Fold:
Amino acid sequence: MKPGPATLPRTGLIREWIIERALLGSGMIAVVTTVAIVVVLALETVAFFREVSLGQFLGDTQWTPLFADKHFGIWPLLGGTLLTSAIAIAVALPFGLLAAIYLSEFAAEGVRKALKPMLELLAGVPTIVYGYFAVVVVTPMLQRVIGGLAGFNALGPGIVMGVMIIPMISSLSEDALHAVPMSVKEGAHALGATRLATLLRVTIPSAFSGITASVVLAVSRAIGETMIVAIAAGQQPRFTLDPRVPIETMTAYIVQISMGDTPTGTLEYRTIFVVGSTLFLMTFAMNIISQRLARRFRKGTA
Amino acid sequence: MSSTPRRDSVRNRRLLERAFVALCLLAVLLPLGLLALLIGRVLVDAGGRLSWGFLTSYPSRRAAQAGILPGLVGSLYLTGLTATIALPLGVGAAVYLEEYGRRGRLAHLIEINIANLAGVPSIIYGLLGLELFVRTVGMERSLLAGACTMALLILPIVIMASREALRTVPDTLRESAFALGGSHWQVVRQVVLPLAFPGILTGSILAVSRAIGEAAPLIVVGALTYIAFLPRGINSPFTVLPIQIFNWVSRPQEAFMVNAAAGIVVLLLTLLLLNGLAIYLRNRMQKRRYW
Structure:
């Protein structure tokens, strides 16, 4: 639908042209932003690798850029990120999926309409609030049960982060479950399957790619989450899978350096961009995978 | 009278099904319970610290005298400035995508980028802002640099919400306006935008409220954690509510934790107020919808 205002005077046509360009320009900000992110991260990363070898970055198991004896192995930070994210997903996946099943398959329409926005509130609470919650409530509670749990650890913030991303999994998974055509479910019922059997053997398998998309997106969100781990995980880069001791994630490291007075242009300054690049690459890959999967389930059911 | 094995298995299956439904319901209620616990706990912890004095005092080394004024004012300034930058750009982009570029190659390129940007961790925007606005453009660690960074962060949300709103305007209205001889921009400006306005407004308020709770990108851009003055203009150093709370949470003394809790209550109330406003506006304006 391209209208041709033939009666418009010449000045009007020029005005129309200018306005369209201006609108296009505001849209192009999105493209420029993406390019700017990539360029900024790439430039500083290249500068970093002029001083530190890639072998050291990927081969060393210590991360001590602020000490006299400097090591630049990414593994402690990467391990911290993966550990807290894994704990978060271990919490969010069962809760999110079961909640999605309840809302999509079992809840009455009125109940669904009341519960869904309430569940989504969980994702709207600022992360700084969750950080407080992890330090003041969750970790002390866990300390009563788990021996040797330090005041700062991976477990508390991991669990709290999991609670935060429950709505992310539940909302996308619910869409996926909902998109399974009624006729398919009715077919299963007609063959004598119970509601539970229909759900487990028909509905969930059909919605599988959509559910996976939601989980991948949640992982990406957990990897990028910052304030909860910056507050409650301890800021001590440590190459370990023990969830009871203080660790540091990639995001928390960037915060830690930013809080200090690191002069621009130094190697320490560049470390936050290298860590940022690693973070960006990981989340970018996951977002692409998630989008692909989500597109597949939309195509499959449309 | 004993039941047949077959009836038993049916009853067992029913029981199993009920147990499963209960489990699913629990998966919804337990997180909500945790949320209630969180809010309750924060309110209890904040207890005595919440007062007019807390809102109107500057931070202090003595926890009992510390207040949140610079954070509160900083957050308000920053949010206003962020909205001023992000809303025109976001709505403009949405108008282009919905009303002009439909299915064009450029529109497709923009859409892909928006989808990807929406998934970029907020702290990465901080790194972008640090290098681009603070260093390259030379804005220093100012309110303006923070607002530009936050504007880029919420832009994808503003665009998506505005597109949603534009899509609710029926094509018949556009066609009627064109039939009356309106130019493309006249149709958009005088018919589509006014009708989509309530939706755009609501979505924008929600996007902006996302910015209020963010701390990470602003820490990277260089917002201060301890300031004893109010921002004087857009080139001034600043702090915001979440960063002030972060500062208090990071201290070992119990007394500062109380301040953190009180700060959190102020932050949550601000968000509640904004979200309530968004819902109110939507409901009010929806009543006037006449198609």
